[in-house]
């Protein structure tokens, strides 16, 4: 038996079962997989229900277990029961929809997604700050990266400062001195990809349905196919590997209902395209092995082998700084700290500006797509077809949503660098305490300098992209505005021509 924790509306044709909060259902099969449970309601109707929506009792688990396994699964069932208690507490303490929670099962097969925080919608509806994902209103919309090292619970720079480098020469990330300061080495042929042709596919004899996208990189012109769960896997790998030195913005969040709606699929594809384009434009991410695997795998065997290799990668988190190979000598720590503080102030100020622009833009969009067209209809027959520009705010708001995610990544990156600088300043005390030697101190100075080069290269990459993106989006916005008001002028001239001079 199981108690329903939340209302769930079944998608037609997906073998799902609609349930209501507080309802009691019978567990038919808990081993369906993919985050689903087969259940039957009191009316005798059966189907699939998301496992996070049910609180399965120990009796229900034992009854649902295959014959001969009830005794063996006793302790496992108790653990599952406590897991669901934890889930219920988690959902009750956080203002979020149940579908937005992360599934503990890494093999989930659903294509669930929530709209991104404070995102723009073509139908004029917007979400409030924090939205369905339950994030804090003024917090960064990013996940916290964790290291695989057992002695490091977070992005601890000591992992890099005091450990032996694991990198070999072919993995090096060179940093050069450009006109604006340290810059990454950019590939001679910029990487790009096109996401198109979304198709609804299914597996497990139609029990599981999902949208599959076709992705074509410009380097091979050969398309590969991926589901949203594969994009999410890539995001997790990039965040784990590069999260200490590069901003990895979040994907569009998970959604429970309406995931097969045409407008949602179109919006999802556009946002995945924007995310992939930004990753392709980054000289470090775009050339990484895991990103190249995502774009160029040849068959299912190569994809699975590449996934296993990426998941066992030890060069993650702060250890990625061991790959940095600066062209110039060590940097002055004081100057670097000043630049970091200046950049921090800039990103905080820009983040406030982006949020304000999003709020104003959403309000204006709702006004223009709500009562305003009705007011225009009353102006007269001569301008009855007049309407607001369709794409002027769209690109502006979407770009600001992207930068909101990017800006939320930098505080953690700067914090990692600051922690390394603080540790370097403690070098004299560590030497006197016999914890490190003079040669260790020299090595620490060199490694902190590598981290400083990496941070400044990323700052310059961010500014370069910011200038390009906002220049492009403002051009688009003004072009749309010019076209819109030109239409108004044409309509007014047409109306004027109807009146003769007496």
Automatic annotation (TrEMBL):
Where is this protein localized, as stated in its record? Answer: Cytoplasmic vesicle membrane
Carries keyword Protein transport? yes
Q: GO molecular-function annotation terms?
A: phosphatidylinositol binding
What the record says about family reads: Belongs to the sorting nexin family.
Positions of the region Disordered? 95-137
Q: Which InterPro entries match?
A: AH/BAR_dom_sf, PX_dom, PX_dom_sf, SH3-like_dom_sf, SH3_domain, Sorting_nexin_WASP-bd-dom
Q: Which GO terms describe its biological process?
A: cleavage furrow formation; endocytosis; endosomal transport; plasma membrane tubulation; protein transport
PROSITE patterns listed in its UniProt record: PX, SH3
Indicate the segments forming the PX domain, all copies: 191-301
Q: Which GO terms describe its cellular component?
A: cytoplasmic vesicle membrane; plasma membrane
Instruction: Report the protein name in the record.
Output: Sorting nexin 9
> Acidic residues compositional bias: what residue ranges?
101-114
Q: Which UniProt keywords apply?
A: Cytoplasmic vesicle, Membrane, Protein transport, SH3 domain, Transport
User: What sequence ranges are listed for the domain SH3?
Assistant: 1-59
Pfam families reported in the protein's UniProt record: BAR_3_WASP_bdg (PF10456), PX (PF00787), SH3_9 (PF14604)
Q: Which organism is it from?
A: Nothobranchius furzeri
Q: Does the keyword Cell wall biogenesis/degradation apply?
A: no
Protein origin, superkingdom: Eukaryota
